[in-house]
Amino acid sequence: MNVCVQILSGLDAKAPAAIRVDVKGRTLLLDAGGPLQADEPCDWYLDQSPDAILITHDHVDHIGAVRWLPETIPLYCTPTVARRLPAGRRWQPLPRQGTVTIEDINITCGLAGHSLDGIWLHLDVAGGIFYSGDFSFESLLYPFDRPPQAALALLDASYGLYTVNQSSCHDALQAKLNRASLLPVPPSGRALELALWCQTLGLSWTFDPVCQKYHAALQGLPAKLLKPGIHQQLDQLSPLPWDTPEDPALP
Ligand SMILES: [Zn+2]
User: Sign of torsion, CA 248 89 33 127?
Assistant: First the structure.
């Protein structure tokens, strides 16, 4: 079977993720990443008109260019990720754990251990093409599902050669938490993990209204989508009241 895989964007330094797969006369776009910084160039989407768009998770470098692609292209993602689509964008569900047929291609999805409702994709063509956006085996919250065998694996290694394990990161960070600290991280990513960790340390902590919404979303997820015992810990989170205006006037 003739398969062509093109990395439209995402090589070298951390950059928007976009991978084009041409197979069986169809074109799938895996992720539609937008720029992480306002002044970062991003033009990979020009002249692209895939038959379907599949989004792995809701971070801007994987979903941010959806707004520039034609609305008529069918788009597939998980329900929580759909909340971050442009207003009114139509979408169809990907299973968090299971198989779906899109454009005559069987695609298996599993949890990637990186963010709320974030998944990897396995295309059942040419011996298997496995693609994961960001993924982690170390999350306190999110499990990583073992994917099927694949002849080709495309892994987002945007954190490069950073090989420090999470417990060492915790040690380094904890040493800096002896005074008021702001920890800016994606609400669907590490935010809830940091909240759980701060609670474990007995620190006084809080999170903003966006993180509070994700906290509620996690509590509503089936237990099998989170690591064992996490539901109970989420129920016991006790942030300080959030009393900062949501839209403070800039000085
Ligand atoms: Zn991510």
Answer: positive
CA of 77 to the centre of ligand 1 (A): 14
Torsion sign over Cα 224, 199, 194, 205: positive
Q: Where are the domains of the chain?
A: 3-155, 166-235
Quote the CA–CA distance of 71 and 91 in Å, as a whole number: 10
> How far, in Å, from the CA of 133 to the mean position of ligand 1?
7
Q: What are the b/e assignments for 61-85, b being 16+ CB within 10 Å?
A: bbbbbbeebeeebebbbbebbbebb
- pLDDT for 173-225, tens place per residue? 999 988 888 998 888 778 999 999 999 999 999 999 999 998 998 898 888 88
Sign for the pseudo-dihedral over CA of 201, 234, 120, 51: negative
- How far, in Å, is the centroid of ligand 1 from the Cα of 20? 19
- 3-155 has which fold? Metallo-beta-lactamase; Chain A (3.60.15)
